[in-house]
């Protein structure tokens, strides 16, 4: 194995710590909506192939505007 991946530990305490950090990052990303735009793009490709998708900036603007219009969608 060569390149940057060769220096990443796979086993032992360092590898376990790295896997733990990656798990926490994935968990926080899911909670904070980091994958929402990707899911939106997948939905648009599957269900609306002829329609252009919003840019990421437009998507988040619309999503925040929708939460302001309908406060029931908020968690608090």
What composes the largest sheet? none
Q: How helical, in percent, are the residues? A: 55-70%
Amino- and carboxy-terminal Cα gap: 49 Å
User: What's the rounded overall pLDDT mean?
Assistant: 84
Q: Rg from C-alpha positions?
A: 19 Å
Shape: elongated
- How many alpha or pi helices? 3
Q: Which structural class best describes the helix and strand composition?
A: mainly alpha
Q: List the secondary-structure elements in sequence, H or E.
A: HHH
Low-pLDDT stretches are none
Please tally the β strands and state the result: 0
Strand content: under 5%
Descriptive account of the structure:
With 76 residues, the chain is mainly alpha-helical. The chain has a domain at 34-70. It has helices at 12-32, 36-47, 56-69. The protein starts with 11 loop residues before the first helix and ends in a 7-residue tail after the last helix. The model has no long low-confidence stretch (mean pLDDT 84).
């Amino acid at each position: 194995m060569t390149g940057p991946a060769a220096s990443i530990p796979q086993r032992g305490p360092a590898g376990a710590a790295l896997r733990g950090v990656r798990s926490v990052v994935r968990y926080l990303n899911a909670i904070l909506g980091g994958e929402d735009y990707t899911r939106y793009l997948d939905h648009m490709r599957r269900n609306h192939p002829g329609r252009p998708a919003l840019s990421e900036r437009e998507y988040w603007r619309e999503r925040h505007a929708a939460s302001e219009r309908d406060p029931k969608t908020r968690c608090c």
